[in-house]
Amino acid sequence: MEGSLFIQGIIIGLTLAVPVGPISLLCIQRSISDGRLHGIISGIGVASSDSFYAAVSFLGLTIISGLIMTQQYLFRFLAGIVLIFVGIRVFLSIPTAAGTRTGHETFLKDYLSMAAIAIANPLTLLFFLVIVPGFGVVIHGNSLLSAMEFVAGVFFGSVVWWILLCGSVGTMRTRISEQNLRLINRISGILISFFGAAMLLLLVITVGSGA
Fold it and tell me: Which phi-psi region, left, alpha or beta, contains residue 141 (left: φ > 0; alpha: ψ -120 to 50)?
């Protein structure tokens, strides 16, 4: 892949962020239930985790990447459990109409919770270690300046996507009734819990096949 590392990082950041999964559903649900800014801040938390894994892989930090991959089953187990409980919480949550003052989560909690969920998925690191070289990016033995350029691109590309997605979804909030908000929460909660359960099932199959 030709071009600056920043541009390559943007493309890879978008490649990571665009696919719909439990994290996307959570950000969308927060945008609809709490407002677009809550969804965007949550997305920035995801972008931060993606950037962390990009830095680890690009700089060839074998101690950190080795530790994460060695403990990947634990991380995947924790992520699955968290997604199930988060899905249940979303399912049971009581939505309120836009403009109503409620006890929404703080922006800091939005950011930290999504960053923690995203970083608990070691498959993101595997993406950078295995898939990224296919883009033509050589991720080992590079300077700190090059790493900063690449990681900044990953972060920028991911953040742009979350701003576009959550901003667009958030604009619809004022047009959605409380009844429909409740339905959205129910569907989102079921799907998020399903993703968590599927992650645990896949983990059991992987561990079982390797035994």
Answer: left
| Radius of gyration (C-alpha) of the chain in whole angstroms | 18
Q: How many CA atoms lie within 13 A of 204 on its CB side?
A: 7
- The count of other CB atoms within 10 Å of the CB of residue 26 is 27
Reported as a single tens digit per residue, the pLDDT across 155-208 is 999 999 999 999 888 887 777 777 777 887 888 888 888 888 988 888 888 777
Q: What share of the chain is helix, strand, coil (3-state, %, to 5)?
A: 80, 0, 20
Are the C-beta atoms of residues 90 and 37 closer than 8 Å to each other? no
Find all residues with CB under 8 Å of 21, minimum gap 6, and list them: 195
Distance (Å, whole) CA 92 – CA 33: 13
Token pair belonging to 2: 């030709």
Query: Does the predicted TM-score (pTM) go above 0.85?
Result: no
